[in-house]
Write the structure tokens for this entry.
Amino acid sequence: MCKIDVQSAELNVLKGMTKTIIDIDVFVIEYSLTETLQGSALLHDIIAFMAIYNFVIYDVVKTGRRPLDTDLDELDFVFVQKNSIFCSDKRWDK
């Protein structure tokens, strides 16, 4: 498992670890909805990058609100391999 929380530099970290991504089963990546740093990656950029390595969003495990106005701002996304055991059961109900 790998947790990435680097204040808008998530995509840079991921690009720097391309040789080890396939060795990791689960990623928890914090993402801010507010572009506080100019040029930071957008959510669709991170999702697209993870898809190259066959990862999909599995869950959202944490949310955070912006102190300025209490708007939703931070989310911790869980990414897993598309073919992992976590994604094996496609049923909606029992």
Summary: The chain has a mean pLDDT of 91.
